Request: fold
Amino acid sequence: MPTRLLLLSDTHVPVRARVLPDQVWRAADAADVVVHAGDWVSVDLLDALEARAALLVGVAGNNDGPELHARLPEVARTTIEGLHVAVVHETGGKAGRERRADAAFPDADLLVFGHSHIPWDTTTPNGMRLLNPGSPTDRRRQPVGTFLTATVDDGALRDVVLVPVER
Reply:
């Protein structure tokens, strides 16, 4: 049976938004695994997402304070239905990202990252998928906020969808 994923990053609650949009909470409720690639800003959001998510995989970002860094790693690794997943907040600039990711995460099939608030979906020369869900609350130079949904089925990542956040 496929495992449903919700991929988030750069929520910045309550600095950039007071709360997560209801649309994101609905997606979290529907997901089997929620992945958050850092910049939570508030431990309250971590607590709320932990309480609501069936399974939460998260990392701390550069805007997260000591309390979040004490509870979350800089890099998280997990296996979902045979798919080797790594999560990190920052990957550096876009030039050379795929080569750096292959070198830093040679055993990963999927790397979820954040920091830029700009959605990203590429595949490295070694076949690793790189996904940045953007930000559901701080769109920066994007037309709307975003997050990603996907499924994992028998070790394969499928049905990756960039979801615009409704205003």
